[in-house]
Amino acid sequence: MVETFRPLVRALLLMAVPGAAHAQDVAAPPAAADTAPEDQRFAIHAQSTFTVQATPGFAAPYAGANSLAPHQLRETFDATVYLGARLWPGAEVWVNGEVDQGFGLSNTLGVAGFTSGEAYKVGEASPYLKLPRAFLRQTIALGGARSEVDAAANQLAGRQSADRLVITLGKFSVVDVFDTNAYAHDPRGDFLNWALIDTGTFDYAANAWGFTFGGAAEWYRGPWTLRAGLFDLSKQPNQPSLEIDLSQYQAVGEVEHRHAIGGRGGAVRLGFYFTRGRLTRLGDAIAAYDRSGAIPDLASLRRPTDKWGVQINAEQKVSARLGVFLRAGYGDGKVEADDFTDIDRSVAVGGQLTGAGWGRAGDRVGLAMAVNALSPEHRQFFADGGVGTLVGDGKLPHPGAEWIAESYYAWQALPQVMVTADYQLVGNPGYNRDRGPAHVVALRLHAQL
User: Fold this and answer.
1) pTM of the shown model
2) Is 260 helix (H, G, I), strand (E, B) or coil?
3) CA distances (Å), origin 111, targets 94, 219, 372
4) Cα separation, 203 vs 173, whole angstroms
5) Distances (CA, A) of 381 to 51, 142, 324, 340, 427
6) DSSP per residue over 210-258, as a string?
7) What whole-number distance in Å separates Cα of residue 420 and Cα of residue 441?
8) How confident is the model at residue 39 (pLDDT cuts 50, 70, 90)?
9) What's the rounded Cα separation, in Å, for the pair 75 and 69?
10) What is the pLDDT of residue 251?
11) CATH number, position 40
């Protein structure tokens, strides 16, 4: 009995580590004892992450409701317990409980490619509980070679066939299934910036914490995978409450091809989304401003509206130690941002190098850059004083592309503890050439069981 509850006790002790500080978890690497080749029946995993970010002074001649402020330091903290069980062959149920606390810089405002994927749009000074995920995953074997699946957070150890159908239903994050990338997708382990860990234009359905209700199907066939999903939107853009009846919805699709170049693995993913929800067309907001000279209330202009976007996401292993990635996206740019951020065009490129070359195989170094841009309608909306999901300086007389460079060094202090130093340089924050550039430094402590 003692041995049965030992992992849970260790998880609770981990969450009690002193410290105080989103949407998006990525499964943690498993402990060695959890990688048995037979199908695993039960699992308990845990993680804890503390992130502190600071920015010194930078040019800020004026500010609006959603501006990034200079001279500030903010922290975020979260601790998660992952509980999983196998219900029948091929079926897993997972429930994640989480404690969160803290704020992003300027309450997660001021930069479209925001500087911390660990910062949510909802901040609290005191720790609070939430249930980010509760879902069922059914895997149906369709033939082909069988391979072992390692245990991890939200994944039971076992075996799976190369050709298979995977169905996921419940509450989870759209980017748990879509737009994944081996080198840039985990704000608890690699890059922190929103425009690097996900495609900036992918306005995926989510509440203010990055999660939603819905379902996804994945069909694996040889080197190809087809994915499709249907998800609820938030009741109002950028808010905690979710629809539960698909009265406002998003359809997502993705085609993935896995390949090898010079014996090194890689993948290319082409994705799209289509949203149908109560949203404001930017042209209507601009027209209302032209008539009255006052910034309109977007809620009064919302009506059933369509929105769409497309993206490409590629990764390639270049050597035993180096991997690179590319993301690019295009959104229609005619409708207000819904549940992610204010980006209509985006390109991101970067890479990750392991420390094996200098005797630190568990360490990682990352370097990447993202460039974000607005549609003409979006630029005019912000020039009129409009406020978006994350940005809005009250005016925009000198618009420009927002660009972000990020680098990090992740040091494996212990087998299950990583300490990361991170630096970001943000040019034209909020697409405003009058403000910035902003230097953002961060320290991240991450532990997992």
Assistant:
1) 0.90
2) strand
3) 34, 37, 10
4) 12
5) 33, 50, 36, 18, 21
6) S-EEEEEEEEEETTEEEEEEEEEPBSSTT-S-B-SSSSSEEEEEEEEEE
7) 11
8) confident
9) 15
10) 98
11) 2.40.160.180
Signed CA dihedral, 172, 173, 178, 180: sign only = negative
Residues in contact with 235: Cβ distance below 8 Å, sequence separation at least 6, in sequence order: 241, 242, 243, 248
Question: What is the domain extent for residue 367?
Answer: 2-448
Q: Which two tokens stand for residue 300?
A: 């009064």
Backbone CA torsion sign across 85, 89, 90, 91? negative
CA 189 – CA 186 distance, rounded (Å): 5
What angle, 0 to 180 degrees and rounded to 10, lies between the N-to-C axes of helices 376-383 and 282-292? 30
Task: Please enumerate, as own/partner, the contacts of 60-63 that have beta carbons within 8 Å and a separation of 24 or more.
Answer: 60/435, 60/436, 61/434, 61/435, 62/393, 62/394, 62/395, 62/434, 63/393, 63/394
Q: Structure tokens of 198?
A: 């996900």
Express each pLDDT in 6-32 by its tens digit: 443 343 334 333 333 344 444 444 443
Q: Count of domains in the chain?
A: 1
| pLDDT tens per residue across span 88-119 | 999 999 999 999 999 999 999 999 999 999 99
**Cα distance between residue 126 and residue 118, in whole Å:** 16
Nearest-angstrom CA–CA distance, 290 and 331? 25
As a whole number, the mean pLDDT across the chain is 92
Cβ atoms of 151 and 137 within 8 Å: the answer is no
pLDDT digits (tens, 9 = 90+) for 133-165: 999 999 999 999 999 999 999 999 999 999 999
Q: Determine the pLDDT at residue 238.
A: 86
Q: Give yes or no for residue 173 having a pLDDT over 70.
A: yes
- Residue in 208, 213, 136, 139 with CA at minimum distance from that of residue 172: 213
Q: Which of 120, 139, 142 is nearest to 130 (CA)?
A: 120
Q: Pairing relation of β-strands 402-414 and 360-373?
A: antiparallel
Q: Is 372 helix (H, G, I), strand (E, B) or coil?
A: strand
Give the angle subtended at the CA of 252 by the CAs of 247 and 255, to the nearest 5°: 165
Q: Among 347, 250, 348, 255, which Cα is nearest to 308's?
A: 250
